[in-house]
Amino acid sequence: MHADAATLKAAAAQTLKELEGRALGPRDRLAIPCQDMPAQDPMERIRNMNEVALGYSAEQARVEASRCLDCKNAPCVQGCPVGIDIPRFLKLAAAGDFSGSLAVIKESSLLPAVCGRVCPQEVQCQAPCTVGKSLKGVEKAVSIGRVERYVADLERAEGRRAKAVVAPDTGKKVAVIGSGPASVSCAADLRKAGHAVTVFEAFHRPGGVLIYGIPEFRLPKAIVDDELQGLRDMGVSIETNYLVGRTRKLADFMSEDGFDAVFVGSGAGLPTFMNIPGENLVGVFSANEYLTRSNLMKAYAKGEAATPIYEADTVAVLGGGNVAMDSARTALRLGAKKVYVVYRRTIKEMPARVEEVAHAMEEGIEFRFLENATRVIGDDKGRVRAMETVRFELGEPDASGRRRPVQVAGSEAELAVDAVIVAIGNGSSPLIPQTTPGLNTDDHGRILVDENGMTSLDGVYAGGDIVLGAATVILAMGEGRRAAASINRRFLG
């Protein structure tokens, strides 16, 4: 059961009072209690699209930030792909200087409200946290992302936005393809350096995976729009409905349009399927299509949205990552009476965030571990009516380090479902490579880059999921910053 927000705020206020005026040593800070995140009640939230996690109070943010030991070697910074000065922003937050805290974050990241919500801090900045190691559990590390979210949300709530400092115009022009996390970071750093930057987005709305991939209940779209406004305020131009490879060839940006460099951050939006019988039946969807219809097209607003979404009572989601959790939880909110997550390993091997799995379980989603689909079964109208599954045992570790699932002979069974969502990953769209001679890719269609983020074409850089494959928001942002730094060096000769 989730603690009431008012109760958590009162408890934090009492802790702050006890800490006031004290010179805190490491032992004192280790004794400060972790601050739980207030959240909607599970049985209420499954019938709305509102954000599940409600955010810290000011008191909670200060108490949580006070747990930081301000380690000299700052291992948390080493775990942050964009290199935020975490101890410094936490120290300011602990003192109640929330605007100063946010200013430190924005030195390295343009998307603090986004990253504070969706980044897997438990395997990045919080994984090496000395507090978590001292208390023997990453869940006891300082909740860096939650404090980051608070200071970013406060700025928005108060209607203030510190304008980024932009260097004098350099006369250089850069085209940025895509408007997801990698592109936003790259565009911000390039604009700060004084270059003219234009972002080209294929969809009618910018934001990339933040808009089409992550549900409203985990990342409200108004927050993404607000963060992108910061990019516009800096002077970055954003053109939508512009599909590079169709509207314009990539090579034309430099040869004909006068751009001095190009960054490709077009993401990984090509769905991967199981390649099993029955995947062409009505009622089988890629997670990509299902989530895009709900998130970007707002198909959940029945009667108001122009885009329909398939209605089903019993839904099976195949996969164990964050996209699978998002799909399963979305299906529940769209009216499904029963939702299964079918995953061929155990909960220990699931790549999804621990918090997202816990939320899904609280909401009544049933996890069928050590199981997978072998075929989808249709009725006489070509619609899904069931799914054949088999059970697995875990064998020796494979190349990923996870134990390899081994099928149990004779374990075939039938599971009654009327929709199947395949959430086993995405690949890179082939459009740009296919329409750009000389652009090298690997066997999976990912663009190959050197240590500077440059592709096989001089002046063309790439980063994010189009290079890494489906990765995290913050890793993509780190790729974008790396490429921007390389472009800046290029322009300096």
Radius of gyration from CA coordinates? 23 Å
**How would you sum up the major sheet?**
5 strands, parallel
Number of domains: 3
CATH class value of the largest domain = Alpha Beta
Please tell me the overall pLDDT.
Answer: 94
CATH H-level superfamily of the largest domain: FAD/NAD(P)-binding domain
Count of alpha and pi helical runs? 20
Describe the structure.
The protein contains 20 helices and 16 strands. With 493 residues, the chain is α/β, with parallel strands linked by helices. The chain folds into 3 domains: 134 residues, Fumarate Reductase Iron-sulfur Protein, Chain B, domain 2; 162 residues, FAD/NAD(P)-binding domain; 152 residues, 3-Layer(bba) Sandwich (FAD/NAD(P)-binding domain). Strands 3-2-1-4-16 form a 5-stranded parallel sheet, covered by helices on one side. It has a 5-stranded parallel sheet with strand order 6-14-7-8-9. Strands 10, 11, 12 and 13 form a 4-stranded antiparallel sheet that branches. The mean pLDDT is 94.
What is shown here, in short?
This protein is 35% helix and 16% strand. It has helices spanning 5-19, 26-31, 42-45, 58-65, 75-78, 86-94, 98-106, 112-118, 130-134, 144-157, 181-192, 209-212, 221-233, 252-255, 287-295, 322-333, 354-362, 431-434, 465-468, 473-491; strands at residues 173-177, 196-200, 237-239, 261-264, 270-271, 284-286, 314-318, 338-343, 366-369, 371-378, 384-397, 403-407, 413-416, 419-422, 426-427, 460-462. α6 (86-94) runs antiparallel to α7 (98-106), α7 crosses α10 and α15 (287-295) packs across α16 (322-333).
